[in-house]
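Lab notebook: predicted structure, single chain.

Context: the supervisor wants predicted structures on file for every construct in the current expression panel, including those that have not yet been purified. This is the next one on the list. No modifications to the sequence; it matches the entry in the shared construct table.
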Amino acid sequence: MTNTNVSSAPVALITGSGQRIGEAMARHLHAQGYHIVLHCRNSTQQTELIASELNTLRDNSCRWFGADLNNYDEVIKLGESALQCWSRMDVLINNASSYYPTPLGSATEAQWNELFGSNLKAPFFLSQLLAPALKKSGGCIINMCDVHAIRPISNHPVYCAAKAGLVMLTQSLAKDLAPGVRVNGIAPGAILWPQDIETDATKQAEKLAMIPLAKTGSPEDIVKAAWFLIHDAPYITGQILPVDGGRTLRQ
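Prediction complete. Output recorded below exactly as produced.
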């Protein structure tokens, strides 16, 4: 179901917003008066629940769509559906990301396509599709990059290459879409433990030893950075903001 009436409220599309950092950003922007378009790939039940909660707080303020960001046709359908909801777009947050190791010698083409699909291909084509609407509203794009786009992590060459591409895409889009649309990135460090070490105290301690602030961040740290770039940074574009506790200071 879509609503083709133009919204007086700003609209944000956040990919991968059915859980974790994406969910936190969606809830914050909604609390600031935004209409929200949620996206998920597999977490449909959780995403539907979030949409229901937000619509209870403010009627007709949230929609959700499922899409596989590795599928070009579904990416385009997601962008078109998001735009049709309220006939405007003010913020695009390319948050969805596949992440897993691809050790050299065992990586497959399917892994390459999946990691580049969600981390680079989908952000480009969503940005391209929504650029006219974003220009009309004077909006912005935020790409969720990674500190490992600059300092690679072992056994993740494909993921790191995809995120490095996203950094360059951020800078290229910032140049090509100026002055109407600002484009920036956020490079999180250790915010939420990945599944492979979330119960491994030894590996967690090794990671913390590389962080000058000696602690993990929280989704709220990313939310605050995103809100700053959206709301309080009208003269910032083409920049990648590390939110990493100083991780990039260490070799």
